[in-house]
Design a protein that fits this description.
Oligomer: single chain
Structural class: mainly alpha
Shape: globular
Number of strands: 0
Radius of gyration: 13 Å
Distance between the termini: 22 Å
Order of helices and strands: HHHHH
Number of domains: 1
Length: 110
């Protein structure tokens, strides 16, 4: 976790900006960090913006990465064909439920 502390802090800022209504208690921070670890270790993400987007999506919408639409995007990103942020830019995950609104964050690159 210490190695990801800066990324975790920037993910929290991003999440607070995109979903200010979300409570960020100790449990939430642990879950966000676990999602970041998953992004880096399981999905081999090397770009911070990709990992932050992945973590935000996973935190706000548990199980979202099991959906075919995102499994395909993750595969494209893992192959190096495109960044994960780029792979998610053309999908509207928000159309499936109000809690998933705007998860294809183009601002995740900031």
């Amino acid at each position: 976790m210490i190695g990801r502390l800066g990324v975790l802090n920037r993910t929290i800022v991003q999440l607070h900006r995109n979903a200010p209504e979300v409570a960020l208690d100790d449990d939430a921070l642990k879950r966000i960090d676990a999602h970041l670890q998953q992004a880096y270790d399981i999905h081999a993400m090397t770009d911070e913006a990709d990992a932050r987007l992945f973590a935000e999506q996973a935190f706000r919408c548990p199980g979202i990465h099991d959906r075919t639409q995102l499994v395909q995007r993750l595969a494209r990103a893992r192959s190096g064909e495109i960044s994960y942020v780029g792979a998610c830019a053309d999908i509207d995950i928000g159309s499936t439920s109000p809690t998933e609104r705007n998860l294809q964050r183009k601002d995740a690159v900031t």
